[in-house]
Design brief:
single chain; about 45% helix; binds manganese (II) ion; Helix Hairpins; 2 domains; 8 helices; minor pseudopilin epsh fold; mainly alpha
Amino acid sequence: MSNINTGNSSTAPGATSPHMLATLPYAEDALEPIITAKTLSFHYGKHHKGYVDNLGKLIAGTEYANLPLEKIITSTAGKPEKTAIFNNAAQTWNHTFYWNSIKPNGGGEPPAELKQKIEAAFGSVDACKKELASAAVSQFGSGWAWLVIEGGVLKVVKTANADIPMTMGFTPILTIDVWEHAYYLDYQNRRVDYVNAVLDKLINWEFALQNAS
Ligand code: MN
């Protein structure tokens, strides 16, 4: 699906099992001023790390201990008695995907091949960004806004809490974290300002193209 380090690749340094924290693909201050080092230090170093650590404790000695992260997610989704494992596994995956969905000096025009797919689905890049922003802002409470592919066509979806498109038959292309911990230190209640700044200045269209190809 993509070549990012989702925490279970033997080629990624320090990431040989589902309970290893994937390396942040840039420095903690690299996204300033859009996302500050303070936010990233908590979001990556406390929240993301917390999901990874919790997952490790929850799966130790269980049938899930040696499974790849994506297999843990798909095999616990929709099982009420496995909710804690699912939530921590999905949040581990979602955060690594989010770090790769944004980058320093992102935004701007998507690569031509992706732009064609976006225009085919939404009419224009601006219309796609507006739909992503609308999904991100209208998600009630914690969750995620996603660009996904369903049946070869790009579309926007939103998910609540830890929910993840791979369990819904969608291929994720990029995501924006809209949990309050993603923006509250920098933007307080202004989720819309955070979302628009991410779309304009940080979104990683090259990563999206890798996932859409
Ligand atoms: Mn988060």
